[in-house]
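yo, Cytochrome c class i is done. seq:
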Amino acid sequence: MLALAALVAVCVVLVFGGKSGGILKPDDVRVIARGEAVYVAHCASCHGKNLEGQPNWKAQDKDGFLPAPPHDESGHTWHHRDTLLFRITKLGVAEAASLKDYKTRMPAFGGILTDADIIAALSYIKSRWPDDMRHRHDELNRVFARREPSAR
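structure:
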C-alpha cells in the first residue's frame, strides 16, 4: 500500500508539475537569487528595475512596436502559463505565439540564456507577485497541465 501511495505521489508531480502545476520555482531562494541577477542583467533595462515596464505599454509607438510591458501585478504576465512564458522568452513572442508579423524589440533569449536561466528569471518575476495573483497563476498552470500534459 505504501508503494502505491509513493507511485501516485510521483505521478502527480510528473503530471501536474508539483503544487504550482508549472515549471517556475518562485519559492526557491537559490533560483530566485539567480533569477534576480539574470533579470537585472538582461530584462530590467526594458521591463524596469521594479518590473514596472515602459510607459504606455499598451499602445504602439510611432514605429509600430509595443513598449515593454510590466511584469508586476499591473501587467498581464500572470495571465500566461509557465510554459508559454518560457517559450516567449526563449523563442521570442512571434514564434512562441505563432504571430508571424508581430513587431517586437524583445530578442529571443534562447541563444543568450540557458533554459535554467530563463526559468530562474521568470521565477524571480513570479516571486514578486502578490499571493493571490500567484495562486491564480498556479491554478492556470494546473488547468493547462490537465488539458495538455505534453505542453508542460
